[in-house]
TrEMBL record:
This is tRNA (Adenine(22)-N(1))-methyltransferase TrmK. It comes from the Bacteria. The lineage of its organism: Bacteria, Bacillati, Bacillota, Bacilli, Bacillales. Signal peptide: none annotated.
Length: 230
């Protein structure tokens, strides 16, 4: 992977960036995505935010190597603190982290989201918490995608400002993904259901405690929900 040829995962993130967007890529690592967005004429300007010094320095070097210092600004900052009002950012990408970490980044500097019209979020795990956050903060799901790369399954959520309502099942598996029921979607949730069934089986012989009863009820609910969509 490099600034000219992204991984399948990041290429999918890039396809949801509106043409001409001013983007903040949070947790930019080597700044491959920002450089790609400029090279392909997708974004007009990108802020690449990185909180760790090593990746920040790699990103600076990559941007210089690509000759994009005028179009990609690399900043050492924690999450959305990389975004400044003068940037006029309208699109935020956050990829390659867990869902809870992505939510914590969005919640830490809510004022930085004021001018943002699109969020493109790629959690490695726990996409459910992002849907819960979106519901609570008046963001709606514009689109979703699920893909497999290197034996890992990833979900990508594209959010825009709007009200939405989701069922418990839609929060868990994703309303757009549920409608399409791709082979990757079926594979992911079949695997999850089998894992829950194994855990449920393992606690069948355990002592009856409130915690065990609660866990059993939670697993049975999840299994029942997912069986309704497979």
């Amino acid at each position: 992977m490099n600034a000219q040829k992204l991984s399948k995962r990041l290429e999918t993130v890039a396809k949801f960036v509106p043409t001409g967007a001013i983007v903040a890529d949070i947790g930019s690592d080597h700044a491959y995505l920002p450089c790609y967005l400029i090279h392909k004429g997708i974004a007009s300007y990108v802020v690449a935010g990185e909180v760790v010094k090593g990746p920040f320095e790699s990103a600076v070097g990559q941007v210089q190597k690509e000759g994009l210092s005028e179009k990609v600004k690399v900043r050492l900052a924690n999450g959305l603190a990389a975004v400044e009002k003068e940037d006029h950012v309208d699109t935020v990408t956050i990829a390659g982290m867990g869902g809870p970490l992505i939510v914590s980044i969005l919640e830490k500097h809510p004022e930085k989201l004021q001018g943002i019209t699109r969020l493109i979020l790629q959690p490695n795990i726990h996409a459910k918490v992002i849907r819960e956050w979106a519901l609570a903060h008046n963001w709606a799901i514009l689109d979703e995608e699920i893909l497999e790369e290197d034996d890992k399954i990833y979900e990508i959520l594209v959010l825009q400002r709007s009200h939405m309502e989701l069922t418990e099942l839609e929060i868990l598996v994703g309303p757009k993904l549920m409608q399409r029921k791709s082979a990757t979607f079926i594979k992911k949730w079949t695997r999850e259901k089998e894992n829950w069934q194994r855990v449920l089986q393992s606690i069948e012989g355990a002592d009856q405690t409130p915690e065990i009863d609660e866990k059993r009820a939670e697993l049975e609910t999840l299994i029942h929900l997912v069986e309704g969509v497979l």
